[in-house]
Design goal:
By secondary structure, this protein is an all-beta fold. The protein is built from no helices and 19 strands. It has a 7-stranded antiparallel β-sheet, with no helix packed on it. Belongs to the GroES chaperonin family.
Amino acid sequence: MSKIDGRTIDGGQVVPTNNFVLVKVVAAKEETEGGILLTGKSKIQKTEGTVVSVGPGKTHPDTGAVIVMPVVEGDNVVYGEFDGTEIDIDGDKHTLIRDDDILIKFTGDELTLDSCSAVRDSILVYVETKETSTEGGILIASTKNTQNRPSTGKVVKVGPGRFATNGELMDMEIEEGDYVKFRDFAGNEIEINDEEYTVVHALDILAKF
C-alpha cells in the first residue's frame, strides 16, 4: 500500500500515461557552500530529479506512429522551472512532466558536461560571456552587460534528432563544435559547473558558422 497525495491506495504504483514521466524531485538545498543554513522559502529549489517510471510515448495523430521516449527509469533529468504537476508519494515530492519538458539528462549524482546528454532535437549551447572569435576570425561580442539574453554560442551537446511523422529519427544539421545564432529569448538557461548554457531546439537555430 502507498499513500498518494494523502490517500492510501492498494498497490499504489503510479504509472504515467502517454508521454508523461514520473520524476522523484531532488530535495531542496539546505545549506549554502559557505555554510549558511537556509530555511523556508530561502531553500534553493532544484528542478531536477530521478526518473521513476515513463509512459509508453505519444502517438502521432495522423500516422499512429509511436514516438519513443527519450529517457528510461534511473536517468536523472533537468526540466523547466514551471513545468510539471506535483504529486506526493509516501511523503516524497515527485512531479509528472512531459517528455518535451526535459532540458537535459545525465547519469550519476552530479550534472557535468561529461555526464549529460541532450535529448530529441535539443542542443546545448555554451553562452559566451566575453568577446571572443571563431577560428574563422568572426568576433562574438560580449553579452554579459546587454539587456537581451545571449543568443550566440558554441554547441557542446547535440541530441539524436526529432522524429518524423512515421516515427523515424531525422538527422540533425548541427554538430558539436559549431557556433550558432539562435532566436532571441529562445531556449532555457541552465548552469553546469558554474558556467552558463542554453538549451535550444534545432528549429530555433537561425545560422551556424
